[in-house]
Design a protein that fits this description.
Largest sheet: 8 strands, mixed
Bound molecules: flavin-adenine dinucleotide
Strand content: 15-25%
Number of helices: 9
CATH class of the largest domain: Alpha Beta
Order of helices and strands: EHEEHEHEHEEHEEHEEEEHEEEHH
CATH superfamily of the largest domain: FAD/NAD(P)-binding domain
Strand order of the largest sheet: 5-6-4-11-12-13-10-14
Amino acid sequence: MLTGRSPAPRSSDRARLDVAVVGAGPVGLAIAWRCSARGLRVAVHDAAPGSGASAVAAGMLSPVAEAYFGERRLTELLLASAARWPAFAAELTETTGVAIGYRTEGTLMVGLTGDDLAEARRLWAYQQGLGLPVTPLLPSGLRDREPALAPRVRGGALAPTDHQVDPRLLVPALRTAAQRAGAAFVPQAVRHLSDVEARVTVVAAGCGAAALTGLPVRPVKGQILRLRAPGGVAPGFRHVIRGYADGEHVYLVPRADGEVVLGATVEERSDTTVTAGAVQRLLRAGVDLLPELAEYDLVEAVAGLRPGTPDNAPILGPLPGRPDVLAATGHHRHGIVLTPVTADLIADLVVTGVPDPLLAAFRPDRFVGAATGGGPDRTMEGDQWS
Ligand SMILES: Cc1cc2nc3c(=O)[nH]c(=O)nc-3n(C[C@H](O)[C@H](O)[C@H](O)COP(=O)(O)OP(=O)(O)OC[C@H]3O[C@@H](n4cnc5c(N)ncnc54)[C@H](O)[C@@H]3O)c2cc1C
């Protein structure tokens, strides 16, 4: 158990640190903020803060639209984190004075063709079966909400509690908050855990966690585009739009400053090359759903690497046999939405030594001895990983 407020740490004073955080993405920075705010002496190690997946991420906070079959425990964690987002965003903005693009208009899920709508409806039925707020809309109701949607769009549903934030504003704000709370920054990558001296080490290095810990975190490539409404005006739609368009799954995230994020591919690859085919598919699906996008400027085409795991769920808690090393990685497609709950629960664990029950399904030892892992939902059924 680590408690007490002491002077801010100096990087030359590492042996007396309470917490070393490896990785300054949203997850590591939020953990550093939460731990520092509790009076712990914290240092964050990263040669290139904010350069991981968050640098390209869309920033959807979508526990409902991303409640997929077979991922019930992950959905519970996503919902728990989304519930923390309003207070988290308000506290971050109040602490730093920085607006982070947190928007609450909600998410529209749409299907372009009859086949697309049939596929989408299966998922909506599952989500409604979990008691999640998904309201089917007739085409007329859809267009009342978003007149810019293509007339071809066959139908949709509203997920009013799925919100968004801008990761490119969030990450610098988190860094400022952590610094103001007293965290020190060491501008170097960590090669071996033994190079870091602190009472507790938190590995929040995204895809970099695999080399440091041996945990099964693998890169999952995502290509993503940024467009901009001409004339410096806001985009002609306000909701996040997630669409099925001729079998292609895309999302469109409007920002107040005119930017629209259009993503994303999901590829089992570890390069960050942008391919013509992916750009073509994303643009075709995006323009099919929202024809006005054809007039927008295409300002960026990039790829990032999500920290994926065998069961798509994050890895949170002590490494097997190493109670002094906590993993906070493997957030895959959900690292932005999961930032608040990860930070709070890992900081609690550091301070009290007692894991919150929510963490039980996401422990690192669920993968011990497994090629593909048991996973949070099997943990519920009480198999060998529980
Ligand atoms: C195309 C795309 C779209 C996405 N959209 C969304 C979305 O809409 N909503 C959502 O919730 N999530 C989204 N994500 C996922 C999200 O970006 C990640 O889950 C999230 O960034 C993970 O945060 P992190 O801090 O764990 O890792 P990262 O953001 O990857 O940051 C890891 C940090 O660790 C550092 N690091 C790595 N190795 C070391 C080392 N050895 N020593 C020190 N530092 C190290 C890196 O430099 C980096 O700064 C998206 C991802 C992609 C690629």
